[in-house]
Amino acid sequence: MVERKIVNVGLVQMSCSENPAENMKKALRGIHDAAVKGANIICLQELFRSLYFCIKEEYAAFRLAEPIPGDSTKQFQSLAKELGVVIIAPLFEKRAEGVYHNSAAIIDADGSFLGKYRKMHIPDDPSFYEKFYFTPGDLGFKTWKTKFGNIGVLICWDQWYPEAARLTALSGAEILFYPTAIGWAEDEEAKARENQFQAWQTIQRSHAIANGIPVVSVNRVGKEGNLKFWGASFVANTLGEVLFQSSHDKEETSVVEIDLNRSNTTRTHWPFLRDRRIDAYGGLSNRLLDDH
Questions:
Q1: Where do the domains of the chain lie?
Q2: For domain 6-276, which architecture applies?
Q3: 96 FRET partner, CA 20 to 30 A, in 159, 186, 235, 283?
Q4: Quick check: is 257 catalytic?
Q5: Is 16 assigned a catalytic role?
Q6: Is 186 considered catalytic here?
């Protein structure tokens, strides 16, 4: 029998206010609560320090950006060291004057700053005007070796792209985290809302299945502008089974047990990585393929 390798993941699902200091305080409290419940790796939601400002195109929002590493990162480093936990902290990064990224800082359990991920896929849709704010990521798809395992981090819109999940898995990720900010428009019908939610969860569960690794998705809650963020942060195992799902409308700090050694069993029985035709996928680097 294969020995279990247990890691407890913490999901901090929050609503946000216009006050970054209040949001930061709430996030730090959520991390502390998750650690008390036994979490080893704790993930916050996308852009947790503010309201989801991408609902509109407003220059004033750029004042929310900060360097990584910077003041927020230092606070998380101190807390990670105090609690002995790994922290994934999504932040609005100011890289230079006029160059901003939607990023996440990865901090190990000893408080060391391991690096950052910059969101690669940037949406531009009604109420999600992210191309106005964010430069596409240029650090690629990466994995960080932490005290509790190798983790991959992607952000929100990245979750719709199997290429991103695959490349992160191929880089050695044992768990794939998706900090997220996604919601329903207030005028959408109930059936449309349900279809959107099911599609969102299904595509991420499919990444878990196709790559044989667990997926952790952390969303926000609350009404902001014309959006109602649908929460439902969840964890799926290597077969895509939903091990846990939080509510659609409540702030919750949750801890879920994951057995990292299940990946070996899953990949042995479903050897998708073995059977990949890497000699035949050159067309993926093209926008479209010619018909002839």
A1: 6-276
A2: 4-Layer Sandwich (3.60)
A3: 159
A4: no
A5: no
A6: no
